[in-house]
Specification:
With about 140 residues, this protein is mostly helical. The chain contains four helices and no strands.
Amino acid sequence: MSQIVFGGIWVILVTVFIQWLIASGSKAKQPGAVPGKISDSLSHDSFVFRAHRTFQNSIENVPFFLAAAFLAIFVGVDSQWFAISVWAFAFARIIHMLLYYGIATEKNPSPRSYFFMIGVIANAVVLVQVAIALVA
């Protein structure tokens, strides 16, 4: 089971790495690009904005999930639900990324919001499994 979990964690890390490259590359190609800054005038109609926000959203969400997943590994959670949760989070982040890249909307909830919520649920499942392992 651990190889399946580690594979999912690898996919999550590679996804964030790809987001980083896309966000950095799209911004760097802009005329007058300043390292570390995007224009305040950009919004969802700009791919540079969406690529930046996709990466930032992962920076906000992925570390917490990885901490929960590694805590689960450390306390000995080795269940099918743990593996499913890791892969659900991985796939949800990929779909969230693709929707953020492809759909320029200010609407809330946007289609990507549903995949964000799948990630939240996957995170909750992992945290519940950790709690169960701690009291067992």
